[in-house]
Recover the amino acids of this structure.
């Protein structure tokens, strides 16, 4: 999905890296584990995974893209010993749902919960992206590691109907899996047409998917105004910790800072300032939210790309069904 962006930002190398080790699950609150994703120099990203535990079993929120990320999920579930009660997908981007396919092979009876947005995305975004991915491969410009990821994405899109959820989430309420304590929230026209996020009132943890992304807001399929409104809804909950779709765990002050930075970035992108100015302001605003110094360069590079994208499509992504004001 991000291959063209990565190439245009010159964030790729010509030597394929060794296969990364699986990330390590970390308990961030009682009965809540984070399996961190990542946005690296030479690979497509993995989104963060959150595992919620209860007496009725485990709920896995998002499943990543790469085999090593999925292996970390399997290791957490296996080590726990309780049954896998459900998989929940925040949205349909491949860095959040690809692991569903292998997990379904191991646990075929486990239901998958998500919004119905993927049904339109299969024909509206995924299948058209195959031609772009294949052209990138055919160009000979793809470094080996990135080429491997693009080929993997094409293979997943060929099986896209298998990613349609067993149980569609269409309204706010309680997740009908696990012990029922997880609260489902639906954000319409935000990072995608319909984003799902979860709030666990017992632990105070909210898992919000791509409503928060670092090192930059991944606006490829986004409606910026709905995204900002969704963050306001997140901030209305009495959370203690928030797990983004990409980036480190945040407290309330960090989420408020991210919300302010995103609002300022959208305003700048819709204005007349140079793209580099908008990008640098974004990178400065979120610098303390990043995990490594390297991410500041990523933040500015990605942000400049998204300024151009928003300006080319009238202030929202071309896939946003809600027009920009």
């Amino acid at each position: 999905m991000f291959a063209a962006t990565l190439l245009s930002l010159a964030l790729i190398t010509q030597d394929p890296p060794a296969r990364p080790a699986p990330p390590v699950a970390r308990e961030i609150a009682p009965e809540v584990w984070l399996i961190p994703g990542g946005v690296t120099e030479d690979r497509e990203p993995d989104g963060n995974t959150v595992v919620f535990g209860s007496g009725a079993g485990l709920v896995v929120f998002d499943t990543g893209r790469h085999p090593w990320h999925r292996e970390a999920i399997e290791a957490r579930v296996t080590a726990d010993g309780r049954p896998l009660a459900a998989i929940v997908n925040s949205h349909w981007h491949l860095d959040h749902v690809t692991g569903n396919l292998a997990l379904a092979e191991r646990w075929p009876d486990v239901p998958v919960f998500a919004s119905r947005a993927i049904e339109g995305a299969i024909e509206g975004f995924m299948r058209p992206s195959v031609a772009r991915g294949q052209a990138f491969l055919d160009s000979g410009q793809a470094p080996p590691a990135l080429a491997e990821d693009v080929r993997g994405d094409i293979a997943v899109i060929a099986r896209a109907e298998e990613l349609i959820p067993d149980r569609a989430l269409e309204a706010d309420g309680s997740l009908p899996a696990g012990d029922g304590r997880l609260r489902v929230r639906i954000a319409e026209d935000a990072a995608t047409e319909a984003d799902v996020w979860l709030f666990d009132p017992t632990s105070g943890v909210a898992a919000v998917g791509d409503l928060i992304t670092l090192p930059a807001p991944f606006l490829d399929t986004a409606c910026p105004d709905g995204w900002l409104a969704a963050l306001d809804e997140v901030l209305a909950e009495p959370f203690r910790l928030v797990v983004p779709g990409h980036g480190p765990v945040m407290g309330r002050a960090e989420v408020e800072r991210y919300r302010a930075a995103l609002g300022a970035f959208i305003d700048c992108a819709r204005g007349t300032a140079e793209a580099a100015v908008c990008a640098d302001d974004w990178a400065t605003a979120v610098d303390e939210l990043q995990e490594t110094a390297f991410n500041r360069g990523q933040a500015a590079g990605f942000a400049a790309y998204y300024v151009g994208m928003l300006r080319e499509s009238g202030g929202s992504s071309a896939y946003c069904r809600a027009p920009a004001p």
The CA atoms of residues 117 and 194 lie 6 Å apart.
